[in-house]
Design brief:
binds uridine-5'-diphosphate-xylopyranose; 16 helices; about 450 residues; 6-stranded parallel β-sheet; about 45% helix; 7-stranded parallel β-sheet; alpha/beta
Length: about 450
């Protein structure tokens, strides 16, 4: 047990309260943070919505408190519905969270609670905690560059970059290089995006610090910029999954059969394809993707999760996705399709040569940390900006843009997996893997930042 752990246990402020947003890309980093704080001596209490509630039996070391959200119906599919759902969760949980938090403060005694760490999208919970005099920290699950984009949004509107004009998509945003207009955060309409980002910034402004799932070697200048722009402490303690494995916070059952399948493949031969937990594709794009994969001749694991192609745009339902007739026969013995994969383990497997990804921030960092280069197909939100960094800054992948055509897909896969510039990208990714190991190793920048975070929590 280190110095900080001893402090946490010996001191009275030993409870930390966590409130993740109930979406996979947000649950995973919060549970990784829970693992880190628990290992440093904190007792962990996790507040969560009914929506996508975690399974307490998989985390017997934590206490769970359900906050009724009163929202029924299927999970939203379209991104604008996801954003409206996030607003609705905030509104519905505010009053019940206030009562439950007050009860916990009575039970633990106020002095025993160090702070609340809330997801950046849970502004209402930050406000409730502030009213009850509980210090808060905000976990931002995206990159430092992405958060700078959030902060700059009003300025970018003033300067005329936003709302996005189709004719200006390629224009560079000189205030936020290397982003072009097309790389700026977008979730549905301009007004919805602006409101979403303003709420995250308000949550951070009301907090005692922001925790970022990034690391110094990956985003040094972006972190320096953030520290200049914010008066709050910034804790770059990522990549969180390097400290704390997360398989137990997966909402869908991970099909582990693909790991055995990988065991039988040669080193650096397989393409892993997954578009995360939210991104959807049209049935046309699914067909082009399938035939591009088939004709590339490259071995593959493809995650086709239920709802990847919504049943119909009107119904927005989550149903099993059918691959084109003949695809299975054309690829038999050369590929495997699963509904959900143990992604971190797949990326860590030596047989994996490349990752075709939507560039969610978790997927991007998980890939970088295993030295796996990427084909990028961003869909919404921060993914375009992440893809820009992958291609233009870290040079560990490239984007497959425009309308998907099977011949372009086939060429892109070959370029990444067997091409010479794919090999160069793999070499650069290996350097980032080493850098991530150093940052998360003893006395590395992220390890030191965790120590500072714990000290900060205990000082609040
Ligand atoms: C969303 C946004 O898309 C993302 O841009 C934002 O930064 C966080 O919220 P999501 O789309 O789900 O997240 O993508 P991502 O951030 O990559 O997170 C997906 C997580 O699910 C990863 O931790 C990944 O390891 C896991 N996963 C994915 C699996 O366990 N199995 C799979 O088959 C696919």
């Amino acid at each position: 047990m280190g110095h900080n752990a001893a402090l946490a246990v010996a001191g009275r402020r030993r409870h930390v309260l966590l409130f993740p947003l109930g979406y996979q890309g947000h649950i995973n980093p919060m549970f990784r943070l829970a693992g880190i704080l628990h290992a440093r001596g904190f007792e962990v209490t996790v507040f969560h919505t009914h929506f996508n509630a975690p399974d307490p039996s998989r985390h017997p070391q934590y206490r769970f408190v359900t906050v009724p959200d009163g929202i029924s119906g299927p999970a939203p599919v379209a991104i604008e519905d996801v954003v409206s759902h996030i607003f609705a969760l905030n509104a519905a949980c505010e009053a019940p969270f206030r009562d439950l938090l007050a009860a916990i403060l009575d039970e633990y005694s106020r002095d025993a609670v160090a702070c609340l760490v809330a997801d950046g999208h849970l502004l209402s919970m930050v406000q409730v905690a502030t009213r009850l005099s509980v210090p808060t920290l905000v976990l931002r699950t995206g990159s430092a560059a992405c958060f700078s984009c959030f902060l700059a949004y009003p300025l970018l509107i003033d300067r005329g970059y936003l709302p996005v004009q189709e004719s200006e998509l390629e224009t560079e945003v000189s205030e936020l290089l290397p982003y072009r207009v097309r790389d700026l955060m977008r979730v549905g309409s301009h007004d919805l995006t602006r409101e979403l980002l303003a709420r995250v910034v308000a949550a951070v402004d009301a907090s005692a610090g922001v925790i970022l799932n990034t690391f110094d070697a990956l985003e040094r200048s972006e972190l320096e910029k953030l520290r200049r722009d914010l008066t709050l402490p910034v804790f770059d303690i990522g990549p969180l999954h390097m400290f704390s494995p997360v398989t137990e916070s997966s909402l869908l059952r991970q099909d582990r059969s693909c790991l055995e399948w990988l065991d039988a493949r040669p080193t650096a031969s397989v393409l892993y394809v997954s578009f995360g937990s939210l991104a959807c594709m049209s049935s046309r794009d699914l067909v082009e993707t399938a035939w591009g994969i088939a004709s590339s001749g490259v071995p593959f694991i493809w995650v086709v999760r239920p709802g990847l192609v919504p049943a119909s745009v009107e119904e927005k339902e989550t149903t099993a996705t059918r691959l084109p007739d003949g695809f299975e026969a054309a690829t038999r013995g050369r590929g495997t399709v699963v509904a959900w994969a143990p992604q971190e383990e797949v990326l860590r497997h030596p047989a994996v040569a490349g990752f075709w990804t939507h560039c969610g921030w978790n997927s991007t960092t998980e890939s970088v940390c295993e030295g796996v280069p990427m084909l990028c197909r961003p869909h919404f939100g921060d993914q375009m900006g992440n893809a820009r960094y992958v291609e233009h800054v870290w040079k560990v992948g490239f984007e497959v843009g425009g309308d998907l055509e099977r011949s372009a897909v086939e060429a892109a896969i070959r370029r990444l997996v067997t091409g010479s510039d794919g090999a160069e990208m793999r070499a650069r990714a290996s350097e980032l893997k080493k850098a991530a190991k150093e940052c998360t190793g003893k006395a590395g920048s992220s390890d030191l930042a965790i120590g500072k975070l714990v000290d900060h929590m205990l000082s609040l």
